[in-house]
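Table 4 source record.
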Amino acid sequence: MNAERKKQPENPGMRDEVSDDRQQWIRSLVERHGSPLTRYARTFTGDMESARDAVQETFLRLCREDAAKIADHCKPWLYKVCRSRALDYLRKEGRMIPVDNSLLTLNEAPGPSPSADLEKSEKVESVMQVIETLPPNQKEVVRLKFQNDLSYKEIAEVTGLSVTNVGFLLHVALKFIRKQIRGEAELMPESRGET
């Protein structure tokens, strides 16, 4: 009889309440981070199915994790676990697939005119092409910073790099991107006032 009493929670209603709160917390994280994590995982795996698997495994691990341990750094924790799962997939498959620019979407506000949107789209495409030429470590920190809005500290947690190294990689990458974009602008007739 003592064994039976130990198996039952002291306050069964309280246990259900906590469980419901936890489920709601996990649901909100899935809604908020599911799509960005899938895009991030796809940059490693190259295909949507494997990216979704990596994200699903990430959230399954979240379900097993003690919420109190990760609550204050949940976003970088999710990206770190997702990155690890995606890299596991690559090790398992033994191949790396290049990412095409259609995977890299930006949240853009509606523009004032179609021509302004087209010009902005062309500039974004130009920047994305330059980003694709970066070394893999620079490419990853740029994506984490500007596509996923992670802080330097969060990027460091995800990648295992120091915060200083993250800052250095971003600095070098942005300097290269600026140089390449300015070089392109100098070659374009409209930037010199010609038509």
